Each structure stands twice: as C-alpha cells, then as structure tokens.
C-alpha cells in the first residue's frame, strides 16, 4: 500500500506510468488471428515444458489456451503436480501466481503476463496492518485466536498466518477449514474478506452477534456486544466485484422472474447470500449449472466473464447476471491475449519477463499455511 486504501497498482494506473513490464506497441497492431496462431505455435514448441493454469474469471481469448482451468483451490492443487513444467505463465491474478511459485520447485518459473493483474481484496490487508491488528487482538483476547486467510491475500499475509499456526482457505473449503480451526483455538481471525468469513461462520451456526469486525484503516473494532462472546474476528476487506450485487437485485428478480433461481459466490454480502437460493465457489457455480435441468433459469452473482461463458456453454438454460449492469473483474481482465503472447514470445527468445518470486523467508511460513489447507482438501 502506498497510502490510505490506495495500492501501488492503482497509482501506476492513474498516472499511466510506463514501466519495464509494459507491453511493446507492436502487440496492439497484431490481429487476434495472428496472436492466436503465435500462441499455439509457441505452446506446441515448448510442449510439457510450458504449463498454463487459467482461472474461471479469465477472458475467453486467454482461457482457450489454459492447460488447466479451475477455481483457486484447483489451480493451487494442480501446480503441485507439474514438476516437468519449466515455465508457468499464470492466467489469473498476482496472489494466485505467488501461490503457484511457492508450491512449485526452485527451478520452475512462474510468470504473470501483466504485473498489473492484482486483486483489490488482497491489497486490503498489508502485513504492517496485520501485525498491528494482531497486537490489539492479543490485548483483548490473549492467546485464544487462530488466524485463517482466504487465499486471496499476499504471500506475506499467508506467511503471518502460517507462523501463528493457521491456514489458508478458499471459497470451496472455507467451511471445512473453519471447523478445523475451531479444534485448534477458541477464536478465529478471518482475513481479508469479511463476507466469506461471515457467510461461512454463520453457516456453521455462529450467530452474527458473536462476530466482531476489525477495521484496519481506523485501527479499531466495530462491535457492540460483550467481547468475551466473540468467536470470529472479521477483517474489514471485501471484493469490489462481488459487492456490486445487492438485495434490490434479488427483490427485483423475485418480482419479475419468480421461477428464476439465484446462485451467488460467498464473496457477496451476507444479505445477498441469505436471500439467494444457493451459494458456493466458482467450481460449485459451474457444477450447479452444468447439472441443472434443461429449461431452468438462473441469475448468477459472480464475475461477468464466467457468467457469459456459462450462458454460452449452456444454451439449454436461461442464464443472466444477477446485476444487469455488472462489469468483469478489471484486474483479472488485465491478462489479455497481447500480454500472454508477449510473455510467451519473450520465453521463446530465452527471456523470462514478469517472473513472480516469493522471498524464501516469507515462503517458508506461507507454505505451512497452504499445506495445512491442501492436506485437508
Ligand atoms: P474461487 O476461485 O475460489 O471461487 O475465488 C473466486 C475469486 O474471487 C478469485 O479471485
Ligand atoms: Fe480479487 Fe474480487 Fe477480482 Fe477475485 S473477483 S481477483 S477477489 S477483485
């Protein structure tokens, strides 16, 4: 973070600062056909030495080249099974590439085709804020707290969590991981997504009154009850994409299309998740739609690239976005065909650009947190 609530990526964006990682001009002059053909050619040339993981939120022009498509859990798992891949151009966002780097061998190189592909949620918890918040929490509750972090967090936060005996979670195993965490300690600190934390804890039967919020920018708790009753401390972070779905969208839909089912990601707010018919990770959303009855109608509350793809791949079902004015995740969209091709052409020329490397001292503890999750998934 470079200032209150502003990330370095956002500042670079606003100032449109050219850096050594920016894309040479000639890529804007190539046609899509030319770029597609070149990516195919380079992939064929490298064979198994190249492995491209792609998150479900990636654009079609990019996801078509993914050797494995998945949610964040699946992509983390699959990266551990590809020791033959020398180069891993990661089609996703920065925290996913960091995770891939930490779970692969020292000679494997993870590349993020555009360094601006960050995640605003991951930027909402930096390590200094976390250390400060932890100190305040220890003063109130002593040694009764286990930290868990959503994988949508920096390697430094994963390292912090690993050092304190905690684990990472993804949206597909958050419930199981929270159950495990309560076998370890009396209270849980859940970083950085308050919504996933709240939705999951509530699902486990923890009432809202037993959840406090830690507001890192103010350095204070947002909680009105008896602190002794608190079971879960939610870090005040959120996904700016999933917060764009609100209860009004669901009410309008229930009015106009009462037979339409509402299916949302648990990064949505508590109200939205409670008012939906079903909620789950991106894989859960995909499986639900694939197994749904032909003719069924669905309003989906997640990122637009995925919703559009589901609509295209399931023409026998009616699929719309829960928010008709929804946009895609801007940072996920930074990975486009020109950037992918550029990073691959550089590899072809023997140069690795935009390599993601997590320092060993951070990775050591972060891997502990990741492995505690992977062993239980
Ligand atoms: P999952 O892939 O775990 O569903 O997470 C969604 C997401 O927001 C990734 O950034
Ligand atoms: Fe981050 Fe939300 Fe985009 Fe996922 S969808 S990368 S959580 S901003």
UniProtKB/TrEMBL annotation:
Coiled coil: none
The protein, known as: Quinolinate synthase
PANTHER family: QUINOLINATE SYNTHASE, CHLOROPLASTIC (PTHR30573:SF0), QUINOLINATE SYNTHETASE A (PTHR30573)
Gene: nadA
Chain's role: Catalyzes the condensation of iminoaspartate with dihydroxyacetone phosphate to form quinolinate.
Biological-process GO terms, alphabetical: 'de novo' NAD+ biosynthetic process from L-aspartate
Xref: InterPro entries: NadA, NadA_sf, Quinolinate_synth_A_type3
Binding site for [4Fe-4S] cluster: 119, 239, 329
